[in-house]
Amino acid sequence: MINKTKIIKEISDAGLVGRGGASYPTAQKWVAVHDALKTKKIGYIIVNGAEGEPGVKKDGYLIEKYPETVIDGIFLADEYLGPNKIKKIYFFLSKEYYRKYASGLKKVLALKKYKRLAEKLEFFIKPEALAYICGEETALLNLIEGKKIEPRLKPPYPTTSGLHGHPTLINNIETFYNVSRVNRGKYQEDRFYTITGAAKHRGVYQLPINLTVEALLRKTGNYPDWPFFVQVGGEASGEVLNAKQLDRPVEGAGSVMVYRAKGTDKHELLKYWLKFYRDQSCGKCVTCREGTYRLWELINRKKMDYPFFWEIVLALEETSYCGLGSSLPLPIKSYFNNIVKK
Amino acid sequence: MNLKINHQSVVGRPGQTILEVVHNYGIKIPSLCYHPDLDVKANCRVCVVEINGYDKLVTACSTPVVKGMDILTDSPRVKAARATNLELVLSEHTKKCATCISSPDCELLRLAREYKIRSDRLAPRKKGRKTYRFANAVEIDGEQCIDCDNCVSACHNQGIDYLERKGAGAAQEIVPVKDSACIYCGQCAVHCPAASAQEQSSWPAVEAAIKDKKKIVVAQFAPAVRVSLGEEFGMPYGTNCEGQIYTALQQLGFNSVVDVNFGADITTMTEANELLERMKDKKSIWPMMSSCCPSWVAYAEYYHPELLPHLTMARSPQIHLAGAVKTYWAEKKGVDPKNIVLVSVMPCTAKKYEVVRPELSLNGRPLVDHVITTRELAYLIKKKRIDFKNLKPSSGDDLFNHGSGAAAIYGASGGVMESALRSAADLACVGQKSPLCHSRLEFKEVRGLAGIKEATVEVAGQKFKVAVVNGISNIDKILPKLKKYHCIEVMACPGGCLGGGGQPIPTTNAIRQKRLDGLYSIDKSRSIRRAHENQAMVEYYNWALKKGLSAKVLHTTYKKTKGSILTTVKQ
Fold first, then answer.
1. Which residues contact A197 (CB under 8 A, 6 or more apart)?
2. pTM
């Protein structure tokens, strides 16, 4: 048996926050599910390794390198919430990650300590279409339940009414990894960063938390000696910064994409983002479904209607149903403000 | 709790949404996908409002009020966002206003005007989408659909789940579900804000028939239509506008108008007699179930064919009256039935399907030639610019214009049961001469909007257990204990015909209740309140029996089906 109060205090003291992008305090989430289970008989755990954001690769890196630590984190969550109450654990992975890394995870699950855990853990493979929205907790619930992949109305939150209406803990792989390290006293206030794009040494790095973009690029030998700009937090939804704005900490999903200032075609870049959002929009709400479709249409016209373009971008920012639609304006607006206008 | 709306102090209860509170104060917020019958979906993004201190706008339909909230429903920021979303919505909807029965009161058009939506910036993107036609009753036109999902939710609420939103993003489409069957109830249509789900139009055929001078065009209108049509013309909910309907139909050019209430009395008479027959025969199958709702019949024929022997063999009021018109009425008037074009005005879309059922034809021709919904009639009246509200009421002076009070309540869930009980209880007394034999007139236990209503009543000294299923989704609650009952009434639409798929939009529980009150007050106002006391009807009934027409005009049959009828059309 684990000491429940102790583990929550450890997680809280370590300041663990969600690593999917929203940075929600982990301890609060665990307590919420635990409290909900006091009156409910069944609960679920979902290990989110969906990694839908292009340019973020740390989930794959992590399960390849530290399968035991990840599984141990899941084990601790199960122990904390009550192994008799947690009916099932879904380990959500992309097809590629499953193919590459499932065997490593399965080896760990074969250990005697994890026998009970292994019996109720099921790998759930991410579909290829709508991969992005599957990272959204409630869309993921719908996917597992076999419903249309789209976000649900919140509240209720998954912590109280998640999978099949039961309390459900959904955490990113990195969170389980960190919980295990916290519990073993090995947590070092670090995190994973992914560097992609035109950088010299692309890859995943495990470094102290709260590094600035500049520090990260310099530490990894990736600071370009040519004109560049970056996109922080994902190749789709990340914020675009110019070389003078690199004193900000790398937050969210922890990725930095490096672009060459010369040779990056504005039109093509906009098209990449807009196509991505159009293709990933689940279709539920008007603003995102129609807005992303029409933005794509506008950019492909001979003459771009900019006032209308910005009107739709603003509507997406202010009135989208979920984080997918409302995340589109950040890359577009920051690109225009920080790069195009400079 | 106190909060502010547009700087005005208001009071809200915990658990209420902004939209609910705002409506209580008479402030209007436009919304398309919101409907009090349906779970909140918050997908049209038109009801957005601004809350002081919040980063983003929120949808009023889905956001619960919190103490101290400072809400702006009409700020420039709100208006701009709403206008953008409306422009996006409208660009989904292929405009077919010239032939659309919703056009006189179209909410999309009204909002487009209010928000000065430009129509030149975006081309309608759904041209070429498919139309799915469900028998000849209902259709979903993909070219007009705005993806609000109301039809899917309404069909789900019916427990049918025949519709789904398939695919993703802009490519998604409302499609019929393969291993399910449509019951043609039209709840999708009455919940659609964009006239994408709607009845298959019969009004053009009716217009053409009226123009044909060689034809005698007769209209018959259903019980529930008289308490709802007025809504289309700004009259209070539940107003009985029977008199105006007679005048309007005559002004539209119908040669004669008859009242389906008369038909309902035929139905009650037929059913009550069948009930008494069943009581005499020890081998009878119980419970006896109603059959005047064609969606319920379609449901039983596909989903529960084992129930078909339970269904009464009595035809429905529209078909009963149609049989009377094309035989007795034609004979009395000295006209060839072939020259009669009979048009039904129904609160229902499934009635369109009922009239083409082969067993309900006479000499190879359908008894009813066209069925239009309440909405279609409203459209014809508006199209001809008839000032309905101020019409001088008139009454039919024909053979089939007077129904009993029991007939009026056919339009409400429980009404068929109550009518049958009034007559059966009374008829069973006939000849018994027992001083104890007295029959009840009102059976209030079976009235109202509850999903299941039950009562134990006395018929000819026998205790009778009856149940009323209000809304087809409630049928599952009754099936496991079927054997407990003697009689069951089933109406597919919530509220019965007054909440039918062909009724005015919107139809909500509050509105259903008003229509219901309207019907019961008609019943109360009638001097004759039992079907079998309608002398003109009894005269016809006996005539039909004497002529040996019982199988041709009074009774019908049912058979198991393998699915619903679906036609896919690409325009």
1. A55, A230, A231, A235, A256, A257, A258, A259
2. 0.95
